[in-house]
Design goal:
The structure holds two protein chains of two kinds.
Chain A lengths: L5 H8 L12 E7 L4 E10 L2 E10 L2 H14 L4 H4 L4 H7 L8 H21 L17 H4 L8 H4 L2
Antiparallel strand pairs in A: 1-2, 2-3
Helix pairs in contact in A: 1-2, 2-5, 4-5
Chain B lengths: L10 H20 L4 H5 L8
Classes of the chains: A alpha+beta, B mainly alpha.
């Protein structure tokens, strides 16, 4: 069996919504270069609807495919719906990811949350802080250089 | 990434991999959130 599904390969080679947005409503960046993945999501929001979404990703094919699929799943959706997007839904939409690549879908979910939180913060919109836990591995390597791994996912290995 | 050569590798194969790596690197840089900042000196290094 192939390592990656056809959908993963398609979104890796032909990513949707690639690029950036000038004057975005919100930006979310998660991950770090030590772990090997950084995802940056740009949102254009009007009336609580994601009118436009773009992403840039530094990382493996699964990371690129996960961010591409995640943007496609929430483009045009209400923020409340976008906040319900889980990493599992991203992985399922890609017809699955290898177990050791599931953290890529986690990053995609976290990047979207971070971008929406940024939008709320910029506009002074109140929100339930419990909805926005700290992304699992942003710059964590700076605090934990003693350890041989850089994020929760890597530590599990 | 590790590229290995054997004495059976041909000049054509070597030219092919050099061209392929160039293309892939250019693509990955074009979708990277870091490359623009590295190039413009906004960040000094990746890590």
């Amino acid at each position: 069996m192939a390592l990656y599904s056809e959908k993963v390969m398609d979104h890796f080679r032909n990513p949707r919504n690639i690029g950036s947005i000038e004057n975005p409503s919100g930006v979310g960046e998660v991950g770090n270069a030590v772990c090997g993945d950084i995802m940056k999501i740009y949102l254009k929001i009007e009336n609580d609807i994601i009118e436009d979404i773009k992403f840039e990703t530094f990382g493996c094919g699964s990371a690129i495919a996960s961010s591409s699929m995640a943007t496609e799943l929430i483009k045009g959706k209400a923020l409340s719906e976008a906040l319900e997007l889980t990493n599992k839904a991203v992985a399922e939409a890609l017809d699955g990811l290898p177990a050791y690549k599931m953290h890529c879908s986690v990053l995609a979910e976290e990047a979207i949350r971070a971008a929406i939180k940024d939008y709320y913060d910029r506009n002074g919109i109140d929100y339930d802080r419990a909805m926005f836990p700290e992304p699992s591995d942003v710059h964590e390597h700076e605090r934990e250089q003693e350890e041989s791994s850089c994020c929760a996912d890597c530590r599990g290995k | 990434m590790r590229l290995s050569l054997t004495d059976e590798a041909t000049r054509e194969e070597i030219d092919y991999i050099i061209k392929s790596v160039e293309e892939v690197v250019e693509y990955l840089r074009s979708i990277s959130p870091l490359w623009k900042n590295l190039e413009s000196g906004k960040i000094p290094h990746m890590i």
